[in-house]
Amino acid sequence: MPPTILVVEDDPALAELLRYNLARDGFAVTIASDGDAALAAVEQNPPDLVVLDWMIPGLSGVEVCRRLRRRDATRAMPIIMVTARGEETDRIEGLESGADDYVVKPFSPGELAARIRAVLRRTGASPGTDAEVIEAGGVRLDLARHRVARQGRDIHLGPTEFRLLRVLMENPGRVFGREQILDRVWGRDIHVELRTVDAHVRRLRKALNAFGGADVIRTVRGTGYAFESDAAGEENDR
């Protein structure tokens, strides 16, 4: 399951912009426009992380953050405070209210997505980090032992192919573009050409299919790749 993000923002245009870009980066996004709605949303469907604007109607973002920190069920919930207030005293107040990170407007959606991923990693709240084994389509990915097997037979993968398989298996059915794969497998700061993704997918596909069986890597022409446990992948990435 993708990480769920609650965006608390009273500006409809900015809220929709964040929803669109975060969804494109692989997050499931819900929106709340004020403090009371944010607390209700957290109680009804707890997210993996809250992106919380400081200046919202009703309860301020700082007060919402403090209330979440006082509750046992939400005390450890990751929170990123978003605000136009960039003075050091404001940043200190935001962090001391319990926020895990502090982003000053204006910011790019890409920066926010990177901050979200960093906080999820740092807090251990990223979905999939608690599961040591992922199984689908006859493929067994053992994260703790760094081993892969299919139909009971060991498959030997290089580190890059292992990371690539993990990204795809943690999000079954979701189509990842080549740039998204580059970001998740290699990282944003590493310069790698897009065709490198295709080469590693071919290696991964060859290793997974070495003993026969349906192709679990689906290629979507002009878009990217997905892990499908019950569909044959289309070999069109050459």
In short:
The protein is an alpha/beta fold and 238 residues long. The protein contains 8 helices and 12 strands.
Walk me through the structure:
By secondary structure, the chain is α/β, with parallel strands linked by helices. It has 2 domains: 4-123, Response regulator (Rossmann fold), CATH 3.40.50.2300; 133-227, Orthogonal Bundle (Arc Repressor Mutant, subunit A). Helix content is 39%, strand content 21%. It is built from 8 helices and 12 strands. The protein has helices spanning 12-24, 35-44, 61-70, 88-96, 109-123, 159-169, 178-186, 194-208; strands spanning 4-8, 28-32, 49-53, 79-83, 101-104, 133-136, 139-142, 147-150, 153-155, 176-177, 217-220, 224-227. The strands form 3 sheets. Strands 2-1-3-4-5 form a 5-stranded parallel sheet, sandwiched between helices. It starts with a strand and ends in an 11-residue tail after the last strand. The relative contact order is 0.10. The model is unreliable at 231-238 (pLDDT under 50).
